[in-house]
Amino acid sequence: MPPITRRRTIALAAASLAPALASPALAPSAFAQGRFPDRPIRLVIPWPAGGSADAQLRSMGEIASRALGQPVVLENKPGAGGTLGPMTVAQQSRPDGYTLTQMHLSVLRRPWMMKAPLWDPVRDFTHIIGLTGWLFGTAVKADSRFATWQEMIAYARANPGKLTYSTSGIGTSNHLAMETLLEMEKVEITHVPFRGSNEGVTAALAGQVDMVSDSSAWAPFVEAGSMRALSVWTAERAARFPTVPTLKELGYDMEVTSPYGVSGPKGMDEGVVQVLHDAFKAALFDPENERIRGQFDMPLVYRNTEDYRDFVARRVDYEKMMVKRLNLTLDG
What we know:
19% strand, D-Maltodextrin-Binding Protein, domain 2, signal, alpha/beta, 36% helix, 332 residues
């Protein structure tokens, strides 16, 4: 693979995570103390309010509250690339089931981007349930020279380094996926990272980058006719874009949805985990939550507790490999 200028050292506000992970004393079984839950449950969202994950989890929490008999209260705690919230839960919360967090791929990836990992994604959490992910894809301006993904790849092969693509940041799932695709094709396209997918879409519409490779912030512009989607990265074609091929249809054995779930501190009682899993699963499949996921093009990626823990362990191995391959490092 040709040298990649985007393999640059990344700045991260990791200072806030510097204290070594604490090991909260294990609480007695919630069932030994009475019915679980007997007070509100706090679900920490590591992003600002108003995004797709916030909306999906807020809906799920409201629905799950009915079965649990207690409110599920969302707390937005953004920072440190989406890892501050989960780390706060791991470091400062008792494993009694009353403090949970969204678990996403950056939490699995970022320890291996540090010289000295501050947490272990497998050992330092109790993983409960896998939920959903995002619709990712590649889109260009409507007047782009490229009508298809294949035309774009052919041009990139004939013109190394002349094309650019945007993502929502170095080391994100979509960045790693694009690097994998380019490596498969043995082509060089310059990566231009932004702080979020909306900024990348704006840059593509302004002609500052040739295409955007990110979550579906581009979708409304494709529907409006100002952008053209070249690929989607889900297992099946997106219902909103039935003519746009998947990566598998384009010849790549890949599916990229950046799936996330819900986890708690390490050492949680397995009976409590079962109660939470069952309530969240019922909420996930509730028609109202399905409506919210459809609104944001979020594919269903349900995994039960055992399968989700297995997924996390296997995904950590993959993230370690990709971080090493792309030489992704963090300062601080």
